[in-house]
Design brief:
single chain; alpha+beta; eight-stranded mixed sheet; two-stranded antiparallel ribbon; 5 helices; 32% helix; disordered N terminus; disordered C terminus
Length: 192
């Protein structure tokens, strides 16, 4: 679907999304629920998930403001880290702490679940709008910065569970503990 076709169709607004990893499919399952309460699902490939992660990590890096020179380095746990990396790590941890668990998107019949063809990302300073190009039409999910951090943690934990490469994540995020974060070791957690 081209950008013009996506913009022309009335996009369904999403209320929440849950992800889980399917070893049988070697894909992520995105279960989504619209503000109208209707639920659907789509398969997300490793390639599309990784590209989305790269865009989101890059965006958060760009909008994270420093008050001092980023070239100054600190030594933490034997590793050199810039102030910006420390600030990003702190903001990430703060977003994870602010995560309020809610019920996941209800299970649905997965027969006929299609492959998610693309995710369009619209970036703004304080929010991100993800438009999922679903077989039934576009669906949008608006995330504040905390939700973006939480989404990244969910995806990172699922990539670990799937044993997929972690190239898209910065090292300071890869080294975070997964047990007490959204999408922890058990995989399926709600994003929004």
């Amino acid at each position: 679907m081209t950008k013009t076709e996506t913009e022309g169709a009335a996009a369904r607004r999403l209320k929440k999304i849950s992800f889980c990893y399917s070893a049988a499919e070697d894909r992520l399952l995105a279960r989504i629920q619209g503000v109208d309460g209707k639920c659907s699902a789509a398969w997300l490939t490793q390639r599309l998930a990784q590209k989305t992660v790269e865009v989101l990590c890059s965006h958060l890096d760009r909008v994270t403001i420093e008050k001092r020179d980023a070239s100054c380095e600190y030594h933490a746990n034997g590793a050199e880290r810039t102030r910006k990396e420390m600030l990003l790590s702190f903001r990430h941890a703060a977003a994870i702490v602010r995560h309020d668990p809610v019920a996941p998107v209800p299970e649905i019949d997965l027969d006929g679940t299609s492959l998610l063809r693309s995710i369009h990302v619209c970036l703004a300073r304080n929010r991100v709008v993800l438009t999922f190009d679903l077989a039934v039409g576009p669906a949008t999910l608006t995330l504040n910065q905390d939700h973006v951090w939480q989404l990244l943690q969910v995806l990172l934990n699922l990539f670990r569970r799937a044993k997929w490469p972690l190239d898209a994540w910065p090292s300071w995020m890869q080294n975070r503990d997964t047990v007490n974060s959204p999408g922890g070791e058990n995989g399926s957690k709600l994003l929004h």
